[in-house]
């Protein structure tokens, strides 16, 4: 088992654990320090504001009546299982993919933990640029975003070797 962890992407699960803990600690602090909808200004455009998100990103389906909690929970567990499986299958050399998967895993587990404990996700990072107010979010949302951005950037800057996917490498070796 230890050898599997060292040779695979599972070695990045420590990153998932650290980001999960940071997410949960910041949410706990928010719930303890602020009343619902209470806001504490940090900068003219940035506040800590305690909000509850009953939906998904941007409160999608937030007012759907409660069934969405189960849907988003199932999706989070399915995505988490896929990411753990993928980390196990990935080589340790796939560093950026493994980091991205570990970050997304942390975010998915951080938000699903809230859903299971409270029935909603605790959000607290609130940006108001004057002309646009971004929906309140949390650390789990940040790490999901960063993980997704890494995957997108990696697809542009580190495309897979075509000989692996097209089989051309086998033809060249035969001649």
Would you kindly provide a written description of the structure presented here, covering whatever features stand out?
The chain is mainly α. It has helices spanning 2-7, 13-33, 67-89, 95-118, 139-157, 162-166, 168-174, and strands spanning 39-43, 46-53, 121-127. It is 60% helix and 11% strand. The protein has a three-stranded antiparallel β-sheet with strand order 1-2-3. Strand 1 (39-43) and strand 2 (46-53) form a beta hairpin. The protein is globular, with a radius of gyration of 20 Å. The model is unreliable at 162-175 (pLDDT under 50).
Number of E-state strands: 3
- Average per-residue pLDDT, rounded, comes to 86
Largest sheet: 3 strands, antiparallel
Distance between the termini: 41 Å
Number of helices: 7
Q: What percent of residues are in strands? A: 5-15%
Enumerate the strands of the largest sheet in spatial order, edge to edge or round the barrel. 1-2-3
**Poorly predicted ranges:** 162-175
Q: Would you summarize the structure shown here?
A:
This protein has 175 residues and is mainly alpha-helical.
């Amino acid at each position: 088992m230890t050898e599997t962890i060292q040779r695979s992407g599972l070695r990045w699960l420590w990153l998932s654990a650290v980001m999960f803990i940071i997410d949960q600690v910041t949410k706990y602090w928010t719930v303890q320090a602020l009343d619902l909808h209470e806001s504490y200004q940090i900068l003219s455009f940035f506040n800590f504001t305690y909000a509850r998100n009953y939906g998904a990103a941007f409160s999608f389906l937030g007012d759907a009546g409660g069934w969405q909690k189960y849907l988003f929970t199932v999706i989070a567990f399915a995505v988490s299982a896929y990411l753990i499986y993928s980390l196990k299958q990935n080589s340790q050399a796939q560093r950026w993919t493994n980091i991205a998967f570990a970050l997304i895993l942390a975010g998915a587990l951080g938000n699903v933990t809230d859903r299971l404990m409270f029935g909603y996700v605790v959000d607290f990072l609130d940006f108001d640029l004057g002309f646009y107010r971004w929906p309140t979010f949390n650390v789990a949302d940040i790490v999901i975003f960063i993980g997704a951005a890494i995957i997108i950037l990696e697809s542009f800057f580190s495309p897979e070797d075509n000989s692996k996917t097209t089989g051309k490498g086998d033809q060249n070796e035969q001649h």
